[in-house]
Write a structure and sequence with these properties.
Rossmann fold, 42% helix, single chain, alpha/beta, binds magnesium ion, binds adenosine-5'-triphosphate, 6 strands, six-stranded parallel β-sheet, globular, 306 residues
């Protein structure tokens, strides 16, 4: 199911602030897209190896992102599918990904490091990049240079918004100088305490004025089940006990929103340019398209289908 002819859609998950749900989103969005029938390549670009550990892989044992980015190995021999969510292949990271700068030629263009990788990824529908919170990391520069879209995660508090602002500034820079096709795919609120309605409304209006139309209608609630899955080394959507959890369904809804935005790229970008607010709490691009999220029952069935 190629969304774009013969080419994967490359989505980097980012925010230049630590602990704001990037890895949780990379893992569970990948699993959700896999359940929806897409072939997904998930690349761990963070030397802290959060995605790799979240999926129960001991990064020390496996070659992965380092070997791929310095050209020592081709893509497919590195891709792990055993034990991964259906449809998902993982390129794992190890802590020595920090040595990438010493392993690549001195004058190599870091923003171009992912391009040969993407060329080898034509059999995938989506390439999902989990990034580190550090803007100066070579792998973060590679993500900015190689991605079509940036999905920004944020927690509903002000510190997380600072990281968002910095990421937006860098996206604009990269678009001007390096990768003119890079666009913001949306802002996802993660680990939301639904009782904190006032803080949520304030954050929403701040983000709405900086990034009009970009909020995903779906937001990810705070739940201990999410942390449980990290400890158990699997995604929420594949966890025998939690795969029907409301947060698992939120990630499936997010996958539908992501599909629609990339499928209708130009319409979505126009929608954001002309967005002037209003429309209620959950109104968003799907409603604008006249499309809708499949009802919960369908999503629950999809979750069981793996
Ligand atoms: N919806 C949620 N409910 C409860 N806990 C969550 C939720 N989402 C994320 N967490 C927890 O918050 C912590 C940070 O999340 P995560 O690792 O996804 O953030 P990150 O942005 O990737 O962090 P880093 O910048 O350090 O890589 C983790 O312990 C994770 O389990
Ligand atoms: Mg992380």
């Amino acid at each position: 199911m190629h969304i774009v002819q013969n080419q994967p859609v490359v989505i980097a998950i980012g925010n230049q602030k630590g602990g704001v749900g990037k890895t949780t989103t990379a893992v569970n969005l990948s699993a959700a897209l896999g359940i929806r029938g897409h072939r997904v390549l998930l690349i761990d670009l963070d030397p802290a190896a959060g995605t790799t550990r979240h999926l129960g892989i001991d990064g020390v044992e496996f070659e992965g992102t380092l070997e791929l980015l310095c050209g020592e190995s081709q893509l497919e021999p590195l891709a792990i599918t055993d034990g991964m969510p259906a449809g998902v292949s993982l390129i794992p990271a190890r802590h020595d990904l920090t040595t990438l700068s010493t392993k690549t030629p001195r004058f190599v263009d870091h923003a171009a490091l992912l391009r040969p990788v993407i060329q080898q990824a034509q059999r995938y529908d989506f390439v999902i990049l989990d990034t580190s919170p550090h803007p100066a990391d070579i792998t973060t520069l590679a993500a900015y240079g190689g991605a079509d879209w940036f999905l920004l995660t944020a927690l509903p508090h002000y510190l997380s918004l600072a990281g968002l602002t910095e990421a937006c500034r860098d996206i604009n820079e990269v678009r001007r100088h390096r990768n003119p096709n890079l666009e913001v795919l949306g802002v996802l609120l993660c680990s939301v305490d639904e009782r904190a309605t006032r803080a949520l409304a304030e954050i929403r209006s701040l983000v709405d004025s900086a990034l009009p139309g970009q909020f995903f209608s779906t937001r990810i609630s705070q739940a201990t089940a999410v942390q449980r899955c990290v400890a158990d080394g699997c995604s929420l959507l594949c966890h025998t006990q939690h795969r029907r959890h409301p947060v698992a369904r939120q990630f499936l809804r997010l996958a539908v929103e992501v599909e629609r935005r990339v499928q209708h790229r130009d319409i979505f970008l126009d929608y954001c340019r002309s967005w002037s607010g209003g429309g209620g709490e959950t109104a968003g691009f799907l409603e604008y398209l006249g499309s809708s999220i499949p009802p919960d029952l369908t999503l629950a069935r999809l979750a069981e289908a793996r």
